[in-house]
Amino acid sequence: FGPFGEHAVNASWIAVQELEKLGLRDDVDLHVYEVPVEYQAVQRLIPALWKKHSPQLVVHVGVSGMATTVTLEKCGHNVGYKGLDNCDFCPDSECCVEGGPECIDSVIDMDTVCKRVSALGLDVTLTISEDAGRYLCDFTYYTSLYQSRGRSAFIHVPPLGQPYTAEQLGRALQAIIEEMLDVLEHSEDKINC
Fold first, then answer.
1. How far is residue 152's CA from residue 67's CA, in Å, rounded to a whole number?
2. Coiled-coil annotation: which residues (predicted)?
3. How far is CA 193 from CA 62, 105, 187, 190, in A?
4. Measured distance CA(65)–CA(160) in Å, rounded
5. In order of start, what are the domains of the chain with their CATH numbers?
6. Active-site residue set
7. Is pLDDT above 70 for 26?
8. CA-CA distance, 68 to 104, in Å (whole number)?
């Protein structure tokens, strides 16, 4: 995500740029986009990216001023969006997809990813969450989960230096995404049922 509110520099964008420098395993094409903190831009951009790339997985990364860990979000929520975005806009319906389910879970087993990455001994603590915050992070996650039938993930990072550096966050994102891809590849049969 781009800047918003108190986050003149969005730690999520800096962390993703670090990930882009590090790269992922050789068989993965990584496409990186900075998403504006705007509801209407998300509603246009997310479906367009899914259509353009037909990805195996989309991983969104956002900053949380309350986070002190790297947080894997299990699900996205459809309703409850009351906060104004960078354009002073909020959907009249206060929801992502009118008539959509209240909550959509990622097909990625976040508990397994969390355990596996924690076992790698990185200098970053991971946690799990079921509430991405009812702002643009949650809105984007739900929109992507709806578009992809659950083949999306969302990672919240804390602000830079609170406590992690950009390099630490980039390495953590690299490890997390590689584990997500591994979990996804080993669960394809279940997903396609």
1. 21
2. none
3. 31, 16, 10, 5
4. 10
5. 11-192 (3.40.630.20)
6. 73
7. yes
8. 25
Residue type, 190: K
CA gap 36, 1 in Å, rounded: 6
Q: Which two tokens stand for residue 39?
A: 């509801």
Largest alpha-carbon pair distance within the chain? 45
- The pLDDT tens digits of the residues spanning 96-123 come to 999 999 999 999 999 999 999 999 999 9
Which candidate, 124, 118, 143, places its Cα nearest to that of 58?
Answer: 143
Which candidate, 50, 149, 143, places its Cα nearest to that of 98?
Answer: 143
Distance CA 78, CA 132 (A): 11
pLDDT in tens, 109-163: 999 999 999 999 999 999 999 999 999 999 999 999 999 999 999 999 999 999 9
Query: Residue 113, class by beta-carbon neighbours within 10 Å (0-12 exposed, 13-18 middle, 19+ buried)?
Result: buried
Using CA atoms, how far apart are residues 136 and 150, in angstroms rounded to an integer? 18
Q: CA–CA distance from 17 to each of 11, 166, 170 (Å)?
A: 10, 9, 8
Percent of the chain clearing pLDDT 70 (strictly above): 97
